[in-house]
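RECORD TYPE: inverse folding
INPUT: structure tokens
STRUCTURE:
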């Protein structure tokens, strides 16, 4: 009976459940307002509507991106640009999400430390500093 119940519960886990081969992707984006708006880079196509709605910018530039396997307890370094990078440390996981410690650095300066629960394919948007004529936005997504 217990095996049947366990099998039934496992069948209810969503298709987006975490997997051993999950990766974490990070990107550094420069968001600006321009007339006419610039074309959206292909890598940012899935994110452009949210960035435009939440942050209010109509043009996006991908300054850097990095993808790594989400792994060890010691943490992974993601370096989407030479100036900004993340240290990601998995703290826990369940069938629906990873709980991560996220540290954001600019050069050697720690800017942010937080813990977040990231489900697969549900990006985390971080508003960065003003940069040039726009705003830096950092993205993290478990894929």
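DESIGNED SEQUENCE:
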């Amino acid at each position: 009976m217990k095996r049947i119940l366990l099998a039934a519960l496992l069948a209810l886990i969503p298709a987006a459940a975490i997997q051993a081969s999950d990766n974490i992707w990070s990107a550094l984006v420069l968001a600006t307002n321009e007339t006419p708006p610039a074309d959206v880079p292909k890598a940012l196509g899935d994110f452009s509507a949210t960035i435009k709605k939440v942050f209010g910018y109509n043009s996006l530039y991908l300054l850097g991106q990095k993808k790594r396997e989400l792994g060890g307890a010691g943490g992974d370094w993601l370096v989407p640009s030479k100036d900004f990078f993340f240290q990601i440390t998995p703290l826990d996981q369940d069938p629906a999400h990873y709980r991560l410690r996220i540290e954001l650095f600019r050069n050697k300066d720690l800017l942010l430390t937080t813990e977040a629960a990231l489900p697969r394919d549900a990006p985390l948007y971080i508003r960065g500093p003003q940069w040039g004529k726009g705003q830096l936005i950092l993205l993290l997504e478990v894929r």
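NOTES: Residues 2-11 form the longest helix (10 residues).
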